[in-house]
Design goal:
about 140 residues; rod-shaped
Length: about 140
């Protein structure tokens, strides 16, 4: 009888150990996924702020080709990563709004004058869309 109790104890102990390893890996996987999500959101915010800064430099300081050198491919990559790693509707909607606002700002910058009303409206709309994305990203990352 004690032999069977020993075997049973070994089986229960092994099961507990395997379950513990499984839970540890699951927690680590979720932690790493959250870290990557936050990193991608932060990169997207930084790229958007860099774009705004480049438009400002050309508009107010008279610099040239600053906007043309902005990292559009990096922006697209990070935006795609955010879309792939989140199913939060508010975040995805704010990301889409931010993309449209960025396109409108870029279009009005390339086609308008430095002090046009259309450019000012696009500038403010982009800032608002960026603030909405930041708020949605904070909420989604908690």
């Amino acid at each position: 009888m004690t032999g069977w109790l020993g075997v049973f104890g070994v089986i229960v102990g092994a099961t507990i150990a395997l379950f513990g390893q499984f839970m540890s890996r699951t927690v680590e996987y979720k932690r790493e996924g959250r870290r990557l999500f936050v990193e991608n959101c932060a990169s997207l915010i930084a790229l958007e702020e860099d774009f705004r800064n480049r438009v400002w430099e050309e508009r107010k300081l008279g610099l040239s080709d600053s906007v043309a050198q902005w990292d559009l491919s990096g922006y697209r990559l990070v935006a795609a990563q955010v879309r792939l790693t989140s199913d939060d509707e508010r975040l995805l909607r704010s990301l889409a709004d931010l993309r449209v606002a960025g396109q409108e700002l870029g279009k009005s910058w390339r086609m308008g004058s430095l002090d046009s009303d259309e450019l000012e409206v696009a500038w403010k709309k982009h800032k608002s869309a960026l603030e909405n994305f930041v708020a949605a990203a904070k909420r989604a990352s908690q």
